[in-house]
Backbone:
């Protein structure tokens, strides 16, 4: 799977949420590719082209990351911490997309550099609308910062 300018990386372990997200984005016709990884460890392998994703080139990075917090192997907050610690990915937009309403998760996400915190709606129609809005904003309206190592 090759990342391009309109790829979103979805980090989600729940197969139902993955399918719901795929359907919502397909319905909105906003993105070219939704790359999916199932745990925090694989998210980092994808972004840094190591392990299971060693054959993938690091560049270009996905346009943004949709990151669940409750993940196996490595939590979403740990993934976010590693993304922000690397020169390669420190400016990559990360949208926390989770069911958590806990203040500690919201504060922790923003303290670690999340660009946005979105609670997943339970209703499909609301979720599809949220996905459409996320796609429109992060892929079409938001002006991305240069990659981590480039000078402003």
Residues:
């Amino acid at each position: 799977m090759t990342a391009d300018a309109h790829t979103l990386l979805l980090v989600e372990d729940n197969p139902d949420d993955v399918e719901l997200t795929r359907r919502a984005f397909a319905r909105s016709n906003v993105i070219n590719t939704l790359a999916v990884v199932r745990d925090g460890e694989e998210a980092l392998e994808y972004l840094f082209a190591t392990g299971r994703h060693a054959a993938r080139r690091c560049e270009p990075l996905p346009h943004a990351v949709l990151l669940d917090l409750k993940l196996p192997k490595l939590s979403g907050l740990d993934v976010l911490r590693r993304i922000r610690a690397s020169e390669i990915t420190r400016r990559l937009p990360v949208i926390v997309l989770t069911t958590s309403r806990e203040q500690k998760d919201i504060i922790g996400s923003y303290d670690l550099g999340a660009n946005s915190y979105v609670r997943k709606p339970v209703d499909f129609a609301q979720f599809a609308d949220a996905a459409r809005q996320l796609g429109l904003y992060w892929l079409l309206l938001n002006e991305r910062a240069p990659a981590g190592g480039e000078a402003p």
In short: The first strand starts at residue 7 and ends at 11.
